[in-house]
Amino acid sequence: MDDKTIIECIEEGVFQYYLEMDYHQKDTSGDSFEEDYEGQFDKYTKLSKKLRFKAQTAVRKEKNAKITTLASVSTRLKDFIESSGESAYMLLKRHVENNGLAVNYRNFEAMTEEEMLNILRQLDLTAFMNELDDSLEDE
Amino acid sequence: MAKEIATANEIAEELAALDLTLLIQSLVRYAQSRMRGSDYIEAEIIVGNVLEKVVNGERRWNKEYSFKSFIFLAVRSLVSQRNQSFDKGQLLKLNRDYNLEDVKNKEHSDRSKTEELVRSLIKILERHRPPPDEIELMIFESWTDNIVKPREIADLWEIEIGEVRNGIKRLKRKLGPIKDHLTTLIYG
Q1: From CA B177, how far away is CA A15, in angstroms rounded?
Q2: Phi first, then psi: what are they for B62, rounded to 5°?
Q3: Residues of A with CB below 8 A from B19's CB?
Q4: Which is deepest, A62, A123, B65, B171, by most CB within 10 Å?
Q5: Is pTM, for the whole model, over 0.90?
């Protein structure tokens, strides 16, 4: 009882009780559910369905976001190159220099195809696109 | 351990595997017990907000914790924030995290005084009707010794964990006067 207060210990005891209960799906009929007020079970079941649905929507969004990023890379790269006059090679080089990679490629010019692929795999495309957007806004 | 943020897919999988209805009820009951003086409606709002934010990715699940712990900790921190937003002078100061050091400095300056305080709390507890049974008292004593996990309490007293769980279930309804007493000691 030196560093923890009694009231905190009591609160913690109640917290641990709720925390360690078993919440694995077993009975969905609601027979074992003790309602605190009438209609509680139905209300929480509806909320559960809503949450699961929203979670699925979030999954789809996450997937779509990845596809969109990939799909827009080439168009946006082209736009940027046209407006800035820089080459795609210079852009990539600068991005790699600014953000660093697991392996430090000093001889960027003498890179093999495999090395280039390795870099592309490590690129954070979203960050790269944001970089491009920022550059465009500056102009 | 490194921070690893769960993907939307992993969250959806957890939600599908859990008895969400029961989990929501426990979260609401827990929140309500920490926000004495308020009804279940406010507790439901807090729990609903937490779950909503988890699902839409606003509150990110660091997989260092189990999903269950993450949700409970999120609710606990929101309830604490809510409790702290009330003024000290307000009615709901009851819900604050009291610092017993204040009490100790004032009147309970040594260990025997702390033990005395625990004894007086047990007396208050025994005045409850129906009175706490032997197991409830064992649990309460464990708590005041900072033994808070049901498993540890069961091991300490060599009783079944199921008995501990049921005991806590009964005991938690009887804690009101104890919290009131501690509040009075701290705030006068």
Answers
A1: 18
A2: -85, 115
A3: 23-28
A4: B171
A5: no
